Task: structure prediction
Amino acid sequence: MPPDTRQVPARFAAALASMRHPRLRPEVRLEEVPGPARIAPWTAALEGEVSIGGLELATGRFVLLHDPQGQDTWQGDFRVVTLVRATLEPEMAADPLLADVVWSWVHESMDTAGLHVLALGGTVTRVLSNSFGALDGTPDAVDLELRASWTPTDTALGDHLHVWVDLMCTAGGLPPLPDGVTALTPRRSGLR
Result:
């Protein structure tokens, strides 16, 4: 495939620059991955993981789409598309309010960040897995998937990235950290 020789739009370059060097909790790892093709003329994507001591608590994907011509359904020329996945305790699967609570995390994270967005939408999916046969004895598991997308009202997208990271941390069961507070690394049992 030949290299992309198009001129990067100034608004897209500004949006990318605003997301460089985010302040992250020590449990969070981000990696830049190729953005999806054919959805928008300009894309960027990150994959993320929240883990403690090698135990994966949550994963996700953050995608930035930009169409300089704008798209009616987006109500703008940018779109942020996020995905968060985590495994929850099985007893949570029976809670009829689980989806409402998980979706409230999106609003709370945005309110905390002071974000105003357009066309916010998404889904909360939970899957209860029961094992049988050769897998009998494997604990039941509840897999949670949160998909949310929205249109930012400017190109300062660092706070949008932090909303997604906060959603991964919340889904992974980490307590929120107020601004200016640094998380301590949990002690390993047996070490003193």
Strands lie at 28-33, 42-52, 55-71, 76-88, 117-129, 141-152. The mean pLDDT is 88.
